[in-house]
Design brief:
heterodimer; A: 307 residues; alpha/beta; Metallo-beta-lactamase, Chain A; 7-stranded mixed sheet; 14 strands; B: 285 residues; binds zinc ion
């Protein structure tokens, strides 16, 4: 199994000299096993990936975790879509289908972002999957794409986001790109523009719902070789932005230890985080993780990870 | 005095990376200020993020006029990341086109819908934002007068022809003795709008224009303008300085260097000055 991160940045792409080392593109991860290639999320990172792939006729599968712009904004610019002979299956959470269609492939080409080249020449199919709330004790959808098995789970993020496990022949990578810690606030689609008062107590039912969500996320990630996890905010920043729906490296590490994964990959770096700051964070958390027998790296664009 | 600064010079999609370090990888955002510091923000692409950081650090109370040339996501995607929008007391006016059903504000709202953005709605921006659709009427801002212009308008069109969504608007910003035209995109597939466009740009000191492709055949029909037609427009309109922007995301620094050189060669011995805009470029005239 081979994994390449093409975009590692959260919220908005940040070009410039301060991000050249870790990369400024928004989320896109390529996972290959044998002849199967699965692309996870379509942030701006899918643009350089598309340049690498085109124009060979081929089939691609794209998994979308949710429709926040940073996870779909590259899709209309994915070069293989311009070629007949290319086919793409886009796997989306069931509630997202109609909006996605309208957004990316709207015929009038004007609303939102729409493909700049009009109707794509490639053959595009949509597949939906259901990801029921974990408190219902129903596991998320599972299916196979070629040689890769996919598992899903709901995460703690405004508007919902989905986490994926991709496995093949005893190797696996887990992608939890956008999630808040599971001990606080939000899930679902409410907007928490102002941070809730710090003495606000969650109702018992909410706490239970979050605990079930956390357990389901740990279960799906259990024993994975690689856990790619939201580390948008530092521990120091988190109290200012508890409503952002994003995690800290501390929470990422706690989940990695709980799920007994081999290596943690810090992901969805904050736009303002410079290469220098990221390198420092990486070093700091690498030694913390090492104490628990977990390897750690901060996701870096273009880096190839072989499992 | 008019001062122009470039924060984002890319069309379509932001392209981070070492190959775009010189010109920059952010999508369109340009600022224009006058001597009283009245701020105009031309398009709100990802370049707006860095502008927001600078405004937070340097001004107490922020106030600006946003002129959106095209309501495509490329030109508006920075809106959720402009930090001064989250400060109470800051005030902004926006000009741009929406759809008939949604209007301009509704159009931007649709781009920030809960499924697409954690912001959910423009109402969560605590600053005061007002939205307007340009008409043929000029606007006043600081010491500047601003004329919006429908780039698709051909001959024989009635003066009140509707301003249609999705079509690119140009803006001319003038003081009594100087002026600048902002025209990153235009729509003139059959060439019937050309004469009017030349008249609109007539004798501008600075023309900021798209240079998405070099104008070789087979590249038209994307709604983007070519470097070649930019030179032609600037020369026919008697513009003093042509500033290229809205670059193709496929073009790295070297490719843009070559395109700028090609434009200078096309301009030959004419007095037209040609500059390829880069992030951080400041022009004062
Ligand atoms: Zn995200
Ligand atoms: Zn998100």
């Amino acid at each position: 199994m081979q994994i390449i991160c093409w975009g590692v940045r959260g919220s908005v792409p940040v070009p410039g000299p301060a991000t050249c080392r870790y990369g400024g593109n928004t989320p896109c991860v390529e996972v290959c096993a044998g002849d199967t290639r699965v692309i996870v999320d379509a942030g701006t990172g899918i643009f350089p990936l598309g340049r690498r792939l085109a124009p060979n006729p081929a089939h691609y599968d794209l998994l979308l975790s949710h429709l926040h712009w940073d996870h779909i904004q590259g899709l209309p610019f994915f070069a293989p879509l311009r070629h007949a002979g290319v086919s793409l299956t886009i796997h989306v959470p069931v509630g997202c289908l109609s909006l996605l269609r309208e957004l990316v492939f709207n015929a009038n080409c004007h609303r939102y972002l729409a493909a700049p080249f009009g109707r794509p020449a490639a053959d595009i199919q949509f597949e939906t999957f259901a990801c029921p709330a974990p408190e219902n004790r129903v596991p998320g959808a599972r299916w196979s794409i070629g040689e890769i098995e996919i598992g899903t789970v709901n995460l703690n993020h405004p508007g919902h986001s989905v986490g994926f496990r991709l496995s093949t022949a005893g190797r696996s990578v887990v992608y939890y790109s956008d999630t808040a810690p599971f001990d606080e606030i939000l899930f679902g689609s409410e907007y928490l523009g102002q941070a809730p008062h710090k003495d606000t107590k969650l109702a018992g039912a909410e706490r239970e719902r979050l605990a079930a969500m956390r357990q389901a996320a740990i279960d799906l990630a259990a024993g994975a070789d690689l856990l790619i996890f939201d580390s948008h905010l530092t521990r120091q920043e988190y109290p200012q932005f508890p409503h952002y729906g994003h995690s800290t490296p501390d929470h990422a590490l706690e989940m990695a230890i709980a799920a007994q994964v081999r290596e943690l990959v810090l992901f969805h770096h904050a736009p303002a985080r410079s290469d220098t700051e990221l390198a420092k964070l990486e070093e700091q958390y690498r030694s913390m993780a090492g104490a628990h027998g977990v390897a750690l790296r901060a996701a870096r664009e273009g880096e190839r990870i072989n499992l | 005095m008019i001062q122009v600064r470039f924060w984002g010079v890319r069309g379509d999609i932001a392209v981070p990376g070492p190959e775009t370090i010189h010109y920059g990888g952010n999508t369109l955002c340009t600022t224009v200020t006058d001597v009283q510091d009245a701020l105009c923000i031309l398009d709100a692409g990802t370049g707006l993020t860095a502008l927001g950081r600078e405004r937070m650090a340097t001004v107490g109370r922020d106030q600006a006029l946003f002129l959106v040339s095209h309501s495509h996501w490329t030109h508006t995607q920075g809106i959720g990341f402009y930090a001064p929008f989250f400060v109470r007391g800051n005030t902004y006016a926006f000009y741009g086109l929406g759809t008939d059903e949604l209007g301009f504000r509704g159009f931007l709202e649709a781009q920030l819908a809960p499924a697409l953005s954690p912001l959910h709605t423009l109402n969560h921006l605590v600053a005061e934002l007002a939205f307007h659709e340009p008409t043929g009427e000029p606007l006043a801002w600081g010491s500047m007068t601003i004329h919006p212009y429908p780039t698709w308008r051909g001959p024989g069109a009635p003066a009140d022809e509707t301003w249609q969504c999705g079509r690119p608007v140009a803006y001319r910003l003038s003081q009594p003795d100087r002026s600048l035209v902002y025209l990153p995109r235009m729509e003139d597939p059959a060439g019937q709008c050309w004469e009017r466009l030349v008249a609109f740009c007539r004798n501008a000191d600075v023309l900021i224009h798209g240079a998405y492709h070099d104008g070789a055949s087979g590249q038209d029909g994307t709604g983007h303008t070519s470097a070649r037609s930019a030179v032609r427009l600037a020369q026919q309109a008697g513009v003093r300085q042509l500033v290229l922007t809205c670059y193709n995301p496929l073009h790295d620094d070297e490719a843009i260097d070559q395109m700028v050189d090609m434009c200078r060669a096309l301009a030959g011995n004419s007095p037209l000055q040609i500059t390829g805009a880069w992030e951080g470029l400041v022009l004062t005239f």
